[in-house]
Write a structure and sequence with these properties.
Length: 319
């Protein structure tokens, strides 16, 4: 009696090395979204997160997996520690960044939570606030709040005492709660953004001012690009006048996109994306505008839209 899965006598027996590597690939692919989700939240950069995940794959491929008790623990620990190291060096690099620095937006239409159990610490405004924490604090908060890791697991990953980890997470929560305002639901966020774009395109300053809070701030990430504000623009009146800048909307084609678990606007000209916009809003109105003009960050967003379950990180070249 034969079954559909039986090998024929002429089929070559898979070598132990081949079977082991196939198993390694299978395990890595199973957890890859979670690994990217951790790295992205710690770094605020899709490109840097991809580099971290690539390095994790290389280390997983080279390690003696026969002694690994828990593959997901090994992969999560390696990802977190690498992301912390990259975040520490990135902080130094960003000191020379020209103008406001914003996290890279990522497309979340096909993977709304980037492998997380919930979309905590994913919105652009929240990622920006997380930047004010140390890399270790950020990692501890992300592991606990976005991925629901137990405190002992976080302590093992960060190689810290359980008491210290509890204090770090508590301190991070307190700091973030002081920075965050009440938010609106997804539908209201989309509505506010829709009305904002329509008013900005038509130069309707009065309607814009009605949407904005008195202390509204507009942040533009262009790293010194010409025509891009190099300092935050503050105040309802100033922001409303700035966003009606004719050149910004001339021949522009705004399109709503799913970004970071919320709605963003990709602005194109002649089918070429030139800017990304999203907002942070509370029941009182829009209080923060986040503009991404940096070509590399827009390219990263476009690349994130085609990220698949088995990306180039586990390619034949790697294997």
């Amino acid at each position: 009696m034969t079954f559909s899965g039986d090998r024929r006598p002429t089929d070559p027996e898979p070598s132990p090395a081949t079977s082991d590597l196939e198993e390694a690939v299978s395990v890595f692919v199973q957890h890859r979204k979670r690994l990217f989700g951790i790295a992205y939240r710690v770094l605020g950069s899709a490109a840097e997160a991809e580099d971290v995940v690539q390095e994790v794959w290389l280390r997983w491929q080279r390690t003696d997996r026969s002694v690994v008790i828990s593959p997901v623990a090994f992969l999560s620990s390696t990802t977190t520690r690498l992301a912390i190291n990259v975040a520490q060096s990135a902080r130094v690099r960003r000191e020379t960044y020209i103008g406001p620095w914003l996290p890279e937006p990522v497309d979340t239409s096909s993977d709304p939570e980037l492998g997380a159990q919930r979309a905590e610490a994913l919105e652009l405004a929240m990622l920006l606030v997380l930047e004010r924490l140390s890399p270790t604090e950020r990692a501890a908060y992300v592991l606990r709040e976005a991925f629901d890791y137990a405190y002992p697991e976080i302590a093992a990953i960060l190689r810290l005492s359980l008491v210290n980890v509890r204090k770090i997470v508590s301190r991070a929560r307190k700091h973030l709660s002081e920075e965050q305002r009440g938010s609106v639901d997804t539908a209201e966020h989309r509505r506010l953004l829709d009305v904002f774009v329509a008013a900005a395109r038509t130069g309707d300053v009065a309607s814009l001012e009605a949407l904005l809070t008195p202390d509204t701030v507009s942040l533009s990430d262009g790293n010194g690009m010409r025509g891009c504000a190099r300092i935050p623009v503050r105040g309802r009146s100033r922001v409303a006048k700035m966003v009606t800048y004719t050149k910004l909307w001339r021949d522009a084609e705004p399109r709503f996109v799913d970004a970071n678990g919320s709605t963003g606007v990709l602005i194109s000209r002649a089918d070429e994306p030139v800017a990304f916009l999203t907002v942070a809003a509370s029941p009182a109105g829009i209080h923060q505008l986040m503009w991404v003009f940096s070509p590399s960050k827009i390219d990263a967003f476009l690349a994130s839209r085609t990220r698949s379950a088995r990306p180039h990180h586990v390619s034949d070249d790697c294997i």
